[in-house]
Amino acid sequence: MDLEGYPPDAEEVYVPRRLSANLAAVLLGRFPKLKRILVPRSVYRIISPKVLDALKGVGVEVIPTGRPRGRPPKYSESVINEICSRYTRGESASEIARDLGIPERSVYYILSRRGLAGR
Length: 119
What we know:
- By secondary structure, the chain is mainly alpha-helical.
- Helices cover about 45% and strands about 10% of the residues.
- The chain folds into two domains: about 10-65; about 75-115.
- Helix 1 links the parallel strand 1 (about 10-15) and strand 2.
C-alpha cells in the first residue's frame, strides 16, 4: 500500500485492502488530520464493525467507493415510464413493443415489475 503519495496533513486517504485495527492506528498516527478513509465496496463489507465504530468515535468516516455492482438497466427510465403510461391508457403490450422496437416479453417484464400486468 502506497501512502507516500499523501501529504502528512491529508484529510482523505484511499486504502485498497482490509482495514484492521492495526492499520487504522498506523493511518491515524501518520495522518493526524484524517477525516475520511476510502475503501472499495468489496473491502468495506469485511471490515470489523468494532474498527468502524472506533474510527467513527475519533471522527474518521470510512466510505465505500466504486461503481455499483450488477448489470446496468437496458431501458432508460423515460422508456419505462412511456411503456407504463401507454399501457394504462389502454394500448396492448404488443402495440407498445412494436412501436418502441423492443421485445414484447420485455414490455411484459417491465409492466410486471411496476405491478401493472399480471399473467
